[in-house]
Amino acid sequence: KNEFEDQELEDRIYKLSKLEEPDENFDEDNRYFRNAIKNKLDVEET
After folding, report:
1. CA–CA separation, 6 vs 16, rounded Å?
2. Sign, CA torsion 35/40/41/46
C-alpha cells in the first residue's frame, strides 16, 4: 500500500466510525466493514 491509499482508508474508517446508524444506502458489505473497523478500534483503545 502507498500512503495515499492508507489515507483514503483512514478517511473512510473515520467517517464510518462516526456513523450512529447506517443510512438506507448502506449495504451489507459496508455494514460488515464498519463493524469490523469498530471492533478493531475497540481493541486498539483497550
Report:
1. 15
2. positive
Which set of grid coordinates corresponds to residue 9? 482508508
* Structural domain span for residue 23: 3-45
pTM for the model stands at 0.32
24 backbone dihedrals φ, ψ, rounded to 5°: -70, -15
Q: Which three cell numbers stand for residue 5?
A: 491509499
pLDDT digits (tens, 9 = 90+) for 1-41: 567 778 888 888 777 777 666 556 656 677 778 788 888 87
The C-alpha cell at 27 is: 449495504
Q: What letter would DSSP give residue 3? A: H
